[in-house]
Amino acid sequence: METLESELTCPICLELFEDPLLLPCAHSLCFNCAHRILVSHCSTSKPLESISAFQCPTCRYVITLNHRGLEGLKRNVTLQNIIDRFQKASLSGPNSPTESRRLQPQRPYTATISGTIAGTIGGGGGTSGGSARSSPATSSHSHQHANHTNHINHTNANHSPAVVAKMDPRISCQFCEQDPPREAVKTCVTCEVSYCDRCLRATHPNKKPFTSHRLVEPVPDTHIRGLTCLEHENEKVNMYCLVDDQLICALCKLVGRHREHQVSSLTERFDKLKAYQVSPGRVSDAVMEASKTSAAQTLENNLTNLVKRNSELENQMAKLIQICQQVEVNTAMHEAKLVEECDELVEIIRQRKQVIAVKIKESKVMKLRKLAQQIANCRQCLERSSALITQAEQSLKENDHARFLQTARNVAERVAMATASSQVLIPDVNLNEAFDNFALDFSREKKILEGLDYLTAPNPPSIRDELCTASHDTITVHWTSEDEFSVTSYELQYTIYTGQTNFISLYNSADSWMIVPNIKQNHYTVHGLQSGTRYIFFVKAINQAGSRNSEPARLKTNSQPFKLDPKTAHKKLRLSNDCLTMEKDESSLKKSHTPERFSGTGSYGAAGNVFIDSGCHYWEVLLGASTWYAIGVAYKSAPKNEWSGKNSSSWVFSRCNNNFMVRHDGKEMLVEASLQLRRLGVLLDYDNNSLSFYDAMNSQHIHTFEISFLLPVVPTFMIWNKSVMILSGLPVPDFVDGVASDLQEHQQQQMGMCRQDSPYLTGMKTCH
């Protein structure tokens, strides 16, 4: 509990936190202690209200206060609740369940059993019914045994019965005659009486036999006297009835109802019960005796484990407290961020409100100005028209013929002109000037605001294996994400798959990973990969709140594509224009001789145009009607003037009429294959040192060479009749993957054709 109490202690007052404040640096401080820090910075020229910052006493972080001062800091409610529970548990008495478990060695029952064991030993055992009172020597032994037990049960040796006495009410002297008696200073275990200082000097002078009495700190009377018999008052229990399974005294055995029962001493029964707890169930007497001797050691080990577990629990609780404090700090930080972001949104809305209001006012002024101008024009036209009407009416009222004729024509012309130009004089009224086509619609923005929420890391994306494609040097990875709209970008990570099944360990080895960051789409094509190689891919979805990885996906590039190299073809072979088919041609063709060309008599061969030094590659050969051929691989240094497989630098599968065989270093071994073999599959696993041949039509394995490759190899082809066609750059078929996995378990048992002393070479024959 010391570790827990230290976590709950204020660094200023060194007491448990009282009304703790949660500082921005995640530490805590009593409110009064924080106030005292502020007071210490006060002066006549600098009052308390003007202090706006102070340093955290733990980490020296500068705490800035707002206008509310210390009241502006958050209260650490979680820490205060933990302190309240801790204080309640600490103040509970020894009879409380929590305190009883914490102070197990201090319980009255333990002390009573120890005294009873000592009394039984002093009385000579339960069967004889000896004296109930123990001798001084026995009492001394009992006290030492109790001290030893307490030392075992707790790491602090001072946790004796005196500790319980200090927790209990005041212990009075039992020898004083005055009322009330004085407080006891010592308890005599031998006399089983507590004495004050004056009575102790009077009753226990420093001389024999009192020098042998054992004096301890004051202990309650019930702790030192032990248990008494239920049937015989004031008689201590010192035996155990095995028939009734209960504690009894000597009188119970002598004259009571237990006189015919089998009894045992308390010590013996105590040891047996302890041994039984160590080894529950039925055990033999020999095992029980052995258990009794090791009971004390077992108890000590068990209690040591219990103390260790309690320490672990305290450490765990301390960590939980730290996590609670961190939760408080993170919550306060996010709440402050929320207020800040919302205030910014409110400020943006306020600014936009002002801008739009200004626009409305400006539009209003402009429209009203136009309308006022139109009204003025209309008024002017109306005045002119009214004046003309008045003049015309006056002309009509003229009775003088001469005057009427003089003015009538002029007025008529003016009225005609006014009528003809009425459409020009009357101004057009624009209905749009009434602001009817203006509207405020913030429904889209309202929906966005209603959807405001805190951002979380996106869910892990999922790589779609069925959509991924590959070539011999590229792989296109496709993936999907449930949180596509919350993802800011993706990150693709990949590395060569080494067969390691622990992807977590593989992922942690960051040195071997290639990373493609800032991908905006749900697919990406990786270029420049090794052909015939398996890769591990991860996709990471990223946003401002964090990132999450997809499950790993294993994808493989296709085999290395190749063609027949015309510079290596024997002069009696004819190659097709695409260099994928070769045919035996007996007619002699004029071809220049080069060191890489097959030239020996009967060595009708050609090689591929690539050298392979890594990866896993698969190609097929369409055999057609050919019944005499040899297909395999060879080093560049392999002789070109002899059959492939006749030297240590080439490995081939061959057919000679109806016989199928494998050949290396001049040694041949017959293998089983169908006479209807029309499509031969070749798997070159350079990284795993193997070369395998398959009946691709029937998905059957024919043979595997185990080869320790030292140099790059090239595919080789020989025919003695008909023609063959090559299909390269193919993905490895599923049936080949399954067979290859099985073969890996038997690699050491397979034939090592590269060894001269291989037992599989026995009985080989040469096909001529």
Automatic annotation (TrEMBL):
Residues 130-140 have a biased composition (Low complexity). Residues 457-560 form the Fibronectin type-III domain. The lineage of its organism: Eukaryota, Metazoa, Chordata, Craniata, Vertebrata. Residues 542-735 form the B30.2/SPRY domain. InterPro entries: B30.2/SPRY, B30.2/SPRY_sf, Bbox_C, Butyrophylin_SPRY, ConA-like_dom_sf, COS_domain, E3_ligase_FN3/SPRY, FN3_dom. This is RING-type E3 ubiquitin transferase. One of its GO terms (biological process) is protein localization to microtubule. It comes from Oreochromis aureus (Israeli tilapia). Residues 10-60 form the RING-type domain. It is found in: Cytoplasm, Cytoskeleton. Residues 89-108, 114-156 are annotated as: Disordered. Residues 396-455 form the COS domain. Residues 120-129 have a biased composition (Gly residues). Residues 224-266 form the B box-type domain. Keywords: Coiled coil, Cytoplasm, Cytoskeleton, Metal-binding, Microtubule, Repeat, Transferase, Ubl conjugation pathway, Zinc, Zinc-finger. GO terms for molecular function: microtubule binding; transferase activity; zinc ion binding. Residues 296-330 form a coiled coil. GO terms for cellular component: microtubule. The keyword Cytoplasm applies. Residues 89-98 have a biased composition (Polar residues).
